[in-house]
Each structure stands twice: as C-alpha cells, then as structure tokens.
Specification:
With about 140 residues, this protein is α+β, with helices and mostly antiparallel strands. The protein is built from one helix and nine strands.
C-alpha cells in the first residue's frame, strides 16, 4: 500500500509539473509590415507585444501611431521558443466589452498571427504577416 501511495504521489507531482510547463506564459513581441482586414491587404507597420496578461497592438501609418491594449484572460497551446513552431491561442478582451482571440502560429514555413474580435455581434479578423519574433 505504501508503494502505491508513493507511486501515486510521484505521478501527481510529475503530471502537475508537466501541465504547468505546457501552459506557462510565453512573452514575445511580433513585428509586421502588412495586415489583412475585410479582404484588403494593407501596408501598416504593426508591433504586437504579449507580456504577462497584456497584449498591446501598436500601429504606425503615415506618421500616425495608434495603440490598442487588450487584457489576456486565458492562454492555451504549445510553443517551442527555439524553433518558433507551435500554436498559441490567447483569449482577449478590451475593458470587458469586446471579446476575441489572438492566435500565433509557427510552422517551418514561417509565422502568422490572427486577431479575431466580436464587435457588436460581428466578428472581425485581422491577419498579420509576421516579419520577426523576439522573446522577453
């Protein structure tokens, strides 16, 4: 019986560490020079920074800078920082009014990111061509 208890305790500790490692926060900054929205491809410089429970989207176009801050309410997925391969899905909100997701996908072909927002019952999608990723 003692062996069973020890084995169960070891498995619980091992499994807890594994789950925690899978869902740990990855802080990163993405740089993009192009965003697609409503079937249009727009040349707009964007920086998307994920740090802790915050997502900041900074856009610069013709000298005008716009900053939009989101709160991250949940994160799921697997990500390999050494290869930048995997998928991370962040559930986001703006002041509790608008809800959506930010999905980062990395493959051997490169990186892409999609911001999806539900605004007044209409879902809007912004797809970014990612030039670079930097980890904090």
């Amino acid at each position: 019986m003692k062996q069973f208890f020890k084995l169960t305790l070891i498995l619980v500790l091992f499994t807890s560490g594994y789950i925690q490692a899978q869902t740990s926060q990855v802080d990163y900054t993405l740089e993009s020079s192009n965003v697609s929205f409503a079937d249009q491809s727009l040349t707009i410089a964007s920086t998307i920074a994920i740090q802790g429970s915050s997502l900041r989207w900074t856009q610069e176009n013709d000298g005008t800078v716009n900053i939009t801050d989101f709160q991250i309410t949940g994160t799921s997925g697997d990500w390999d920082q050494s290869s930048s391969i995997g998928t991370l899905t962040h559930t986001i909100t703006i002041d509790g009014d608008y809800f959506g997701t930010f999905v980062l996908e990395g493959t051997t072909s490169g990186l892409s990111a999609t911001l999806s927002l539900d605004v007044d019952g209409s879902e809007q999608h912004y797809t970014f061509s990612i030039n670079s990723i930097n980890y904090q």
